[in-house]
Amino acid sequence: MSTDTLSSASGLAAVKDARTQQPVHELIATRWSPRAFSGREVTAEQIVALLEAARWAPSSYNEQPWRFIVARKSDKEDYAKLLGSLMELNQLWARQAPVLLLTLAKKTYTQTGAPNSYALHDAGIALGHLAVQATAMGLSLHIMGGFDRAAARQAFAIPDDYELGAAVAIGYAGAPDTLPERFQTAETAPRSRRPLAELVLAGQSGLGL
After folding, report:
1. Residue 183's domain spans which residues?
2. How many other C-beta atoms lie within 10 A of the C-beta of residue 157?
3. Predicted local confidence at residue 170, as pLDDT
């Protein structure tokens, strides 16, 4: 069983391993969502590797409904548009991330035009793949629901057939003390999850939950 490990000394990124009920792969146990990002660049090759991991996610009928808008800090116009669509509270820390990303999900099947009720579900799996790949590469990401969907849709001329999923900040974790004070406590607080017994609604018999 892994335990929470916290490092919050000045100049160091926080390290927060999950306190799991059973051992899990270290890439799952060590993945977490910082708000503090360092100024270290994320290369184009690294971004492509993240997107490639997402590309190989499973999906209903292999539709692959996920799409991504990528904004690097060096792409000033796109970065400003995506940053500007975030809620003001998220802008306070996300502006330090070298890469911002927006996930989309195509709402209809390409071949038939029928509604795809699994589109956002499958886009979420793709983002999960991306998150695990990021952890393997020493990168961190913070997934956000706090953004103005209408503003993002207008800024990037996103067609109606695409549902907006989540905004994501990507980079190398930075020191908690580089954040505005209001975020520093959460940055070093232990991670927590609901117990499995609360999440498994049927079939608990014999699992010892």
Report:
1. 1-32+176-196
2. 6
3. 98
